[in-house]
């Protein structure tokens, strides 16, 4: 399965078109049928939604705010240039070694997020990203001069079960849903906004 968040207005934006093209090539390479790929972006126009359906892709009916569970199935999350809260929500929703070991994220570099944020802000606002840093493997996508704006700071992330099991048991005790009340740079469109 594949879930794509935050693709953007590909009808207007060349970078979003490149990201869509890469997603379609990736689905083909991984032999994931388009019908097993669900997308959501609150910015999609009716025309863009129709184009995605014509490609055989599914649209998620509601804004999940990134809170999509793997439900026991290996799932690729394609989230290029999404806000930190979406990644944090996704981790929260799948917060167990069994679930995290079934997901792969193509999106903003977690190491880059760690480097750019003060550690107290990372831990306060994006605690699930902070807690999983020692349990994630990350490989940056190779850069290409033609697509620097399209895939910069993009990495493939996966969570090997053996690395997750090495984390302190207390890491898994916190299952509180993220709220982002004191977050100054929240990059997420909430339900109903």
Structure description:
This protein is α/β, with parallel strands linked by helices. The protein has one domain: Rossmann fold (3-Layer(aba) Sandwich), CATH 3.40.50. It is 36% helix and 16% strand. It is built from nine helices and seven strands; from the N terminus they run βαβαββααβαααβαβα. A seven-stranded mixed beta sheet has the order 3-2-1-4-5-7-6. It comes from Myiagra hebetior. This is SRR1L protein. Keywords: Signal. Belongs to the SRR1 family. It holds the Pfam family SRR1.
Label the overall shape.
globular
The profile of the biggest β sheet is:
7 strands, mixed
Enter the CATH topology name.
Rossmann fold
CATH class: Alpha Beta
Helix segment tally: 9
Question: How is the secondary structure organized here?
Answer:
Elements: E1 2-5, H1 14-30, E2 37-40, H2 46-54, E3 58-59, E4 75-79, H3 84-93, H4 97-100, E5 103-108, H5 110-116, H6 119-125, H7 127-132, E6 137-140, H8 148-151, E7 154-158, H9 161-166
Parallel strand pairs: 1-2, 1-4, 2-3, 4-5
Antiparallel strand pairs: 5-7, 6-7
Keywords:
193 residues; globular; 9 helices; Rossmann fold; alpha/beta
Short description:
Residues 1-37 form the signal peptide. The chain is α/β, with parallel strands linked by helices and 193 residues long. It is 36% helix and 16% strand.
